[in-house]
Specification:
75% of the residues lie in helices and 0% in strands. By secondary structure, it is an all-alpha fold.
């Protein structure tokens, strides 16, 4: 109970305040242009804050099998969740009336979690500041490659069905992202023994703004006035928040006789709510953006309940 109370104060309270600030900002400041603010803040994170924190962590983190097990395990959970969502949304007759753009948007949101911005605070609470490395390597080695390959395939083949448009190659999209180069540069400097600690400290200081800014933007993104509890939205949220971490935990128990910190960190990563990139993909490939935004909102809200439950049942340590 003491650990649970500390979790609420150290993690849930600041996360709630940051998301609430983004939600109430347009109401207190009528001159705030939400769409413009959201776009500019996302660019600031993508081109400055996030690359800095990736470089700082990668430049000081030795790569080993234990660390690499995190993206592997979370990837297994992601793919298994995708299979479960496909059966639920496309095979079973329960959601037969849903349009394909809605189904694809829910698949994307139910597969990919906000593993850095919501995962890092939880990882830090359980395992200390150095646990940020689990989220960084999971994002770079699992989430980003899968989002821009399998995620794009889901959006174009299962969702929009648009064959009259050409999209840039996945590798071009990946190579145009500053976070990729920051991670590669940091990893290379660590492997070659060229890490310059003052530069790492400077990058870490800048990168600390990543999570507060993104959570503020998350609060501006969630459609608070339209948060109707639609059954398909709640079902996809249940897959993301409950089924995914349970799958990863079962794989961990089956493959590791004595699971360590990295393996439990993979369960934390799998337990995170839907990532905001699902909305970006929905907008870009003309899926159901409203459904994607609702899933992000409901999964974020329910995360405040499912995380303590997973902790109570021993899936998180």
């Amino acid at each position: 109970m003491t650990q649970l109370f500390n979790l609420m104060v150290e993690v849930m309270l600041p996360l709630t305040l940051l998301v609430a600030a983004g939600a109430f900002w347009p109401r207190f400041f009528a001159d705030a242009h939400v769409a413009v603010m959201r776009t500019q803040l996302n660019r600031l994170v993508l081109y400055l804050f996030y690359p800095c924190i990736l470089f700082a962590v990668a430049a000081t983190t030795p790569v080993n099998a234990d660390l690499l097990s995190v993206p592997l395990l979370v990837g297994i959970g992601t793919l298994a969740s995708g299979g479960l969502l496909y059966v639920l949304l496309y095979v079973l007759p329960v959601w037969r009336k849903l349009a394909d753009p809605t189904r694809a948007a829910l698949m994307l949101g139910g597969m990919f979690g906000n593993t850095f911005n919501l995962g890092v605070p939880v990882l830090t609470f359980f395992y200390g500041r150095e646990a940020t490395r689990y989220a960084v390597f999971n994002d770079m080695l699992m989430t980003m490659p899968l989002v821009w390959s399998l995620g794009v395939w889901i959006a174009t083949r299962l969702g929009s069905h648009r064959t009259d448009q050409t999209h840039p190659a996945v590798w071009r999209v990946m190579l145009a992202m500053p976070p990729i180069w920051a991670f590669v540069l940091g990893t290379a400097s660590q492997q070659l023994g060229l890490t310059y600690q003052p530069l790492v400290n400077a990058a870490h200081m800048i990168g600390q703004a990543t999570i507060p800014v993104i959570l503020f933007v998350l609060g501006m993104t969630i459609p608070w006035r339209r948060l109707a509890p639609r059954p398909e939205i709640l079902s996809a949220a249940a897959v993301k928040l409950v089924a995914a971490p349970l799958i990863v935990w079962l794989v961990v128990r089956a493959c590791y006789e004595a699971p360590g910190e990295a393996q439990f960190a993979s369960v934390v990563e799998a337990a995170t709510p839907s990532m905001m990139t699902a909305l970006l993909l929905a907008d870009r490939f003309r899926l159901d953006s409203a459904a994607a935004a609702l899933l992000i909102g409901w999964s974020t809200i329910l995360f405040w309940l499912t995380l303590p439950l997973l902790m109570a049942f021993g899936l998180l340590r």
